[in-house]
Amino acid sequence: GKEIYQSGLLGKCIGFSTTFCHGGPENWSVDGLKCQFFKKKLAGLGALADLGVHKIDFIRWFLEEEVEQVCSMHDTLVKRNCDVDDTAFAIFRMSSGAIGQMFAGWIGNGGNGTTLFCQKGKIMLETDPEFPVYVELANGEKVCIKTRKIQTNEGGGQYGSGVIDGFVTAIRSGKKVPIPGEEGGRSVAAILACVESAKTRKFAKVAKV
User: Fold this and answer.
1) Residue 160 parent element (H or E)
2) What is the pTM of this model?
3) Which of 52, 59, 125, 188 has the most CB atoms less than 10 A away?
């Protein structure tokens, strides 16, 4: 999908909508409902940080841009005995000026997908069960591409991605890690700006990392 976008076929991204939802950490944590994810003193944040940070990572990687400004709200609307957010919504302005929205939640099978609206059409990623990459041009032409399934935690998915192997190899060889800590820091900075926005009920700028 990124190769198609970088080819210029769709032109510049104008806006996007990205979603990441699942039933919550109690469905995979060994501690179930007693896991630390639900405790504010231990976790700090809920779905906003747990799921939202991945979508920020993805958008930053895909567009090769930074989040500059956010407007956000998050709350506990579904989970009982939970003192962190289970539902989060944010609006982002990217460094190019593109505007997008993100929804993250521990609310059930809401899905994990992204749609980018561009000058010459749109590209939908992981929104179609048969075609993970779906392109629709302004002239009506459609391109449907089958790719490997999205990475999950099932079946050793994290190991199969090569990310962990790349990290271990870099540490052992003394070389720079493939994804340096600063990259994660920039996504976390966007999450912290979301927290500030929700608290002040105003737009917040993302700190430089």
Assistant:
1) helix 157-160
2) 0.88
3) 52
CB 197 within 8 A of CB 204: yes
Question: Could you write out the DSSP letters of every residue in 96-121?
Answer: TS-EEEEEEESSSS-EEEEEEEETTE
Q: What is the pLDDT of residues 139-174, one digit of tens each?
A: 999 988 887 655 555 555 555 567 788 889 998 998
d(CA 179, CA 167): 8
Residue 48 CA to residue 26 CA, distance in Å, equals 16
Say how many CA atoms lie within 13 Å of 37 toward its Cβ.
23
What six digits make up the tokens of 6? Answer: 């970088």
Distance CA 69, CA 193 (A): 8
CA nearest neighbour of 85 among 182, 198, 177:
198
Q: Residue 7: count other Cβ atoms within 10 Å of its Cβ.
A: 8
CB contact burial 113-129 (16+ within 10 A = b; e otherwise): bbbbbbeebbbbbbbee
d(C-alpha 6, C-alpha 20), whole Å: 24
Half-sphere exposure of 205 (CA within 13 A, CB side): 4
Largest Cα–Cα separation, the chain = 53
Q: pLDDT at position 160, please?
A: 56
- Termini Cα distance of the chain: 27
Give the strands of the sheet with 99-105, arranged side by side.
Answer: 142-145, 133-137, 121-125, 111-118, 13-21, 99-105, 87-94, 67-75, 204-205
